[in-house]
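Instructor's aside before we start: the two examples that follow are unrelated to each other. I chose them only because their records fit on one page, so don't look for a connection. First example below.
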Amino acid sequence: MITHSYSIMLLLLIIIIILLTIISIKFKQYNEMKKIAYTDPVTGGLNYNKFRVDAELILKSNKKEQFALVCTDIDNFSYINYTFGYKFGDKILAKISNIINKNLGTDELCARRSDDTFVLLLKFKDKNSVKKRLSLLHNKCNEIKSIKDNNYTLFMKKGIYIIHKKEYDISLIVGKAEHSKRTIKTSLTNTLSFYDDKIHKELLHEKALENSIASSLKKNEFVVYLQPKISLTTKEIIGAEALVRWQHPLEGLISPDKFIPLFESNGYIVDLDFYVYKKVCTLLKKWIDNNKPLIPISVNVSRLHVANNNFANSFKKIVDEYKIPSNLLELELTENIFLKNVSDVLNMINALKKMGFILSIDDFGCGYSSLNLLKELPVDIVKLDKGFFKPDGLDKKDKYVVSGIINIAKDLNLQVLSEGVETQEQAEFLQSSQCDMAQGFLFAKPMPIEDFETLLKETNNTI
């Protein structure tokens, strides 16, 4: 009897041990899963989901102190990835995260939100103290050895929102800081921007525009304008660029700089691009059917199209539907597109090139240009950024750079077009430098299609 009771107790003990072992394993697995769920894979710090949870708890539990939300990103970080490699870029992001976290106090947080964007929850006393802290963090980040060894300087844009009492919606708070950051035009002087009434009104206006986008596309409220491209040799109109304006029923004609950034941030730029492609094909079809003089028209390709593996086929389908020869369409890809997802971009433009479309690099020289782009990419035209052509004239350095790019492009059998030409002096310099084409107010501003057709007819392709 005693032996039987002992056996039962031993069995129960074994079962308890097994259960405790299973619970221990499950608990460890749970902790590991929790760690993975809340850890950023690049920096090893908090991820954005964990940041939102913790930030809300801090704001609700800490009633005495005020906080500020900072949204910051690194200007042209894609250049680091492109030049030094993604592994190098990830190491820099991890080091930046480590530096920021080491300089945080109690109830302060930092997380990588996406790509090279970080969000910080900081205790707030006054604007000057926040500025000093952010300046200190910026300087510490630029002390990273691998950054100094490569003679590279990090420039960071910072949008700051001062959080009010009983304001706990982290997504909304981050959105306001992000919007404040987007108002910064340049970060070369470590610029920052505090969310204020002016930015609040802009955000409300932006939201109102955003809510009307879908219906505006259906109602054809977007109008295509054309800006002539001029041959610097013959002074003839040899092409045009399609630009879009928003003919809003309440606000009148809205220029693209007011809504294109919004469309890029919410993804509607893809719909708008295809809207423009169809309008341009409709125009070219009309010219063909009426035996009008034909010139190629260029259209812009947003960076968001790179993620769509079927973009080239979708574009070709539209062109074929209108029966337009592919050599009448030029696709302009901004220089910055090539600094991310290089392999995807190459696949896309190789497909477009095989289909017979003209390809150009737009805004060349606006950022951290790599001349390797010119020899690696199967493009036809290089469009020099208008930033080279200042209203007060070209200085010596500008002339050397512009002439150098033109010479290299010529050696690679590429055509060169200069944007933003506003003076006769600039035009004469470009012509003497063997630049092929020019766009700018010296020749003509962007204009409605009807006005462009009249100009083309009246001048017989000559300005």
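Example two begins here.
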Amino acid sequence: MSGAVRVAPGRPPSRWQVRVPGSKSITNRALLLAGVAAGRSRLRQPLRADDTLVMAQALRDLGAGVELDGDDWVVDGLGGPPRADASLWCGMAGTAGRFLVPVVCAGHGRFTLDAHEQLRRRPLGPVLSSLRSQGAAIGGDAFPLRIDATGLHGGVVDVDASISSQFLSGLLMAAPFAREPTTLRFGALVSRPYVRLTLETMEAFSVTVGVGDGELGVAPQSYRAADYAVEPDASTASYFIAAAALSGTMVTIPWLDLDETGQGDTELVDHLRAMGAEVVSRGPLTLAGPSRLRGVTVDMANSSDVFMTLACVAPFAEGPTTIEGIGHARVKESDRIAATASNLRRLGIHVDEGTDFLRVHPGVPVADVRLPTYDDHRIAMAFSLIGLKVPVVLEDPDVVAKTCPTFFALWPVTGASVSGAG
């Protein structure tokens, strides 16, 4: 698929289900930890998409074994941090770039790391500052980076996690390799559930972390191989859940359990409930859309990756919807607040935009508007929701390959029609 895709309303089934691919956030955490663990790990039902393929290749370049076995990845770990010179490509994957840099610094050797222009523009300074405070020798303040690694000394480390929780997660996963115990201190923290996800993944690979108020303590220890099942991606599931809310139908997401998952983006379910949807089952998640949606005011600081999902439901609600706490979304793959507001305005929807909020007013979108996707997979997937109500044309649909290459093949399960638009 290339050029553009047209998404148009069809006949949604009253009840349906869709199995979404594995979580990108979990897959890349588990891949990295399996890559530095002692022994052979198996990752079951992982996501295979651009972001995770980049991580897998980087681990191979560092000397780990990463091979496919059916739908699983089998990983022969290094048994510790990298100890060989290597050049690594991080693509557009923030989880690759921001996780690999600390782990490489914890090893020994000369490393170069580079990335796509999009990731080069995204902030990296806070994690580099925390690593330099532990003795890391890093050339550059953004990708490309040159690292002469001699290990990390640990100690008390201040971390600015107010822009991205990935900074704290990356430092946390590298901390067991430090020569001395490490205490990571942080103040403001966005996307807090992702740090909890990191802690859960580390525990699965036999590393424990002390959790305090505003700090995390890690003693020197080793990762051990694991047999690890990857949950469905809650961020990808969000579009299908929202589709049911929009169409007044019932969707089931197999293997996604609200009581078991640590993925913060399931918070969207609560917001859709506030708009009138009903949770029929928490596990597997089954949600039924209402006959009418109502506007809400919500804080999505902990689930900003899916604020665009809610924003694309909002025009069809009775009353405005205000989404707050999302300022850090301006430094993601795109300035997501600006991109979402701009596309909604192209559709004729009244939007108020602030530094860290978006207010979407009810309206009837203009049909067959051509929308840019800003080289951002989540913009492409979120605005497919508009196509459930009026036809919409999305440019550069292949951008979804970052996290869900099969998205437009799956989308017709909602009842929408999907066709090339040139």
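DSSP finds 13 helices and 24 strands in the chain.
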